[in-house]
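Input/output pair, single chain:
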Amino acid sequence: MEQPLKILFVINDLYTRGNGLAASARRTIALLREHGHHVRVLSALPRDGDDCGVGMPEYVLPPLRIPLVGPLIASQGYAFARAKRREIERALAWADVVHLEEPFCLQAVVAHYARRQGVLVVATYHIHPENLTASVYLDRALPLNWAILELWKRAIFNRSDLVQCPSRSVYERVSKLRVRAPLLLLSNGVPLGEEVCGGGHEVGESSVVRVLVVGRFSREKDQATILRALRHSAHARSIQLTFAGRGPTEHSLRASARRLLRRGVIAHPVRFAFMSADELAREASSCALYVHAARIEVEGLSALEVLRHGVVPIIARGPLTATSQFALSEDSVFEAGDARALARAIDVWIDRGPVGRQCEARRYRRVGEWYDIRACVARLEEAYRRLVFEGRAKG
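Output:
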């Protein structure tokens, strides 16, 4: 039997809900523990006392309160932890390998001390700079975003022994940075769960087309483009749109949706809801189309969790979003931010009718198998072992 590893996960807020990064980290931690590894966490405590099934952090950090932007951070459903040297050194003294889940101040400090103490470091590129700057309307400020990327490179990636890139587009971007550490192209993976039966089963009135949108409500997720697209769709009045999520742009999205209804552009009120995994599965199983409009997305695994239920996707394609990699035809992609192109794609799939959509939807039921989290975590384990047993610490 292979020797278990001592793996330390470093993340500001492991326990936030509705955040793909934290959810992915929790799933990975749970699987590594299932495989017999000793996994500990350096993080702040959960704000509501809910450990999300992974236990409280073994190494507890105090919350970091940031003046002025604190409310904005909280509106994104997130929190930062303050780097505490004594706790960091205690955690590093225990670990064989450290996994940095974010590119923030905490991870930079941990990477610094890990290098001094000769502890191996794996960093995952989970966030684009534009994910952060979009909230303050600076995502198109190229010099600023490049400067942030260079800072992450110097403070974190160049102090790591391996950098995980969850998608091909991320791999290509990080390759251009010429970081010192080798790169590993490896998805974060999604849980396949039980086999999904059926697929593409649309419910409700035959004249109503149910369309689902999943994800945090924010500028970079660009749900606003979906609402604008309804103005250009020939079938807008037959569409029943559901937004599953929450976030800082919810108020403006609701206002836009009400205007569309008031002006007669749509006939059915747009539904807003934050759903559990089971509720989302039921919703996905009853929908005809799934729209993913994000223009800044490292991987977009939430799309896979919908597609495996047999739903035809329409996915934004752009230089900073990787999610269009899941599309199986050109009819299921549109250029990010182009509301007219999205409307045309929606109309194409509505014109094909339920039979045409269900035939296409069945093709997507097996897409998730290529991103099975169990296979992804197994590859991650191999990477950990190579680092630990080949002794590639920087020292």
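The two ends are 29 Å apart (CA to CA). The mean pLDDT is 93.
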